[in-house]
């Protein structure tokens, strides 16, 4: 890969750190302190932090509002309700002004200590630096197994290459953030969209720690929603599946009817199942189309605290 080292004449580049937070009041002060230690040691860049409160109900907003009032380099964004992790990340990306932006979880499962290494690779010219999970501590067998199977299945079914075993802990160059901001997709699956751009991407690997405190905010429902987003946005295999299944069911029915010389065997549970599945899959895509046509914003910002960003904000 032909890369050019980044040069910034007459100014220090800005690094934005985006932290989506949903009911993370218990852990926020630790996250903030650990991030501060890492960012203070980072030479050659100006840092800003953007905490996005995704409709928390546990005092998270009060905590980040306080942090933003204490420092010019910290901003707080409050979404009007819980819009979900992907929308909260997108909100943070759009609010950010950095030449490079890193999205990191609030619960310290993503170690802030990786940031300098990620920034160094960005200086080298990479547009995307993903953090790959080598292992995942403190997560249930179900979560680990479902993630393992999901990422591999999605990658097989995807219309373009996708990075395996990565969440949204990654560094994005401003160019990528701008592209994400311009995407009209209402069904966002950030990690997939970033791979789709196909800009120079590299990775660092890490061992994922357990949550610092509290429980996972990714309920089964939210995990299913994330998988659905990934599939709908990056694979058309499910849409074609009914045609394959239908053909198989029909062929099976025909064969049975021919062997037993009984045309009634053409119908049956197989054919019904294939039809029901086909309808269900059509329904999912129809829902995605409906969302797109409705054209609602991904989220609504209720309040902002902190300096106004020097770079114009992208439209919501
Ligand atoms: N999160 C969010 N909105 C949600 C759910 C989660 O902003 O609706 C945030 C959460 O606060 C955390 C990150 O997304 O910073 C990842 O969530 P979590 O740690 O619960 O997921 P897990 O690591 O268990 O997959
Ligand atoms: Mg977590």
UniProtKB/TrEMBL annotation:
Location(s), subcellular: Membrane
MF terms (GO), sorted A to Z: dolichyl-phosphate beta-D-mannosyltransferase activity
CDD domains: DPM1_like_bac
Signal peptide start and end residues: none
Matches recorded under Gene3D superfamilies: Spore Coat Polysaccharide Biosynthesis Protein SpsA, Chain A
Membrane topology classification: Multi-pass membrane protein
Enzyme Commission designation: 2.4.1.83
Entry-linked InterPro entries: Glyco_trans_2-like (IPR001173), Glycosyltransferase_2 (IPR050256), Nucleotide-diphossugar_trans (IPR029044)
Keyword 4Fe-4S set for record: no
Domain of life of the native organism: Bacteria
Broad class of the protein's primary localization: membrane
Key words of the record: Glycosyltransferase, Membrane, Transferase, Transmembrane, Transmembrane helix
Pfam families per record: Glycos_transf_2
Family: Belongs to the glycosyltransferase 2 family.
Name under which the protein is recorded: Dolichol-phosphate mannosyltransferase
Species name: Streptomyces demainii
